[in-house]
Amino acid sequence: MSKNILITGGAGFIGSHLSKRLLNENNKVICVDNLFTGNMNNISDLIDNPNFQFIDHDITKPLYLEDIDQIYNLACPASPINYQKNPIKTVKTCTIGVINILGLAKKNKAKILQASTSEVYGDPEIHPQKEDYNGNVNPIGFRSCYDEGKRCSETLFMDYYREHNLKIKIVRIFNTYGSNMSVDDGRVVSNFINQALNDLDLTINGDGSQTRSFQYIDDLINGMISMMESDDNFIGPINLGNPNETSIKNLASKIIDLTESKSKIVYKNLPIDDPKRRKPDISLANEKLKWNPVFALENGLEMTIEYFKNINDKN
Fold this sequence. Notes:
315 residues, two-stranded parallel sheet, 7-stranded parallel sheet, single chain
């Protein structure tokens, strides 16, 4: 049965993939984005679809829409280079913006999913990270606008659930990569690929021993939709990520090999509060959603490299 679905941040990396997938499943999609980090190029092939509507809007301002069945709240800069450009704006998006969208869900009696993040775990003292771990977050650091902002978003979701019986879902997204990432967004995968394609040095913060777990975008979209469609009594939070952990140095070497680049690896100082290890425990997602990532890192990287090659050719 077709649904009317609102996606905030719908022109961004994740939102554009989600928009396309939900349209392909015969839904009507309203994409709301202020284009701070979103890009119209990401949704250019959707604009003429009669079931797709784009609204240029900042969720820190009230939004009035009717007949909405589901809301995916993805609106927020998600890479350090972007969320630190205007940290106060980032916090406002995670608080005032979330309150506005929760109010819209309440008015429409819509089910709403919050795209939270593995950053709520901070620099974790428990490995791998399970959903019942409360995290190790610096509340006054340079990353706090995002880390604490997303933690507050989860708080607001839970309070609307408890006070208003709102149908909510919370997913904690671990490092994700794929097409529609911005060339200059500062994420490690896009950084390394674009440096490698241009035979520039690959810059690693720290000694490269810090680890991350990278999931391909299609795996994440499958998990998010499965979570939205799951039983209303299961609200999360739930980890969505690939548990195959790899060091940043190994990632850099793999990308150099896959691009056949002449690039070398150089090392810079590690940023403050940068997590040393990050790996999701996805046993809850497997149990409740029967969800497991299926894309191997090398296969996902090959497809992402092809995307950036095409972008470079056009430029």
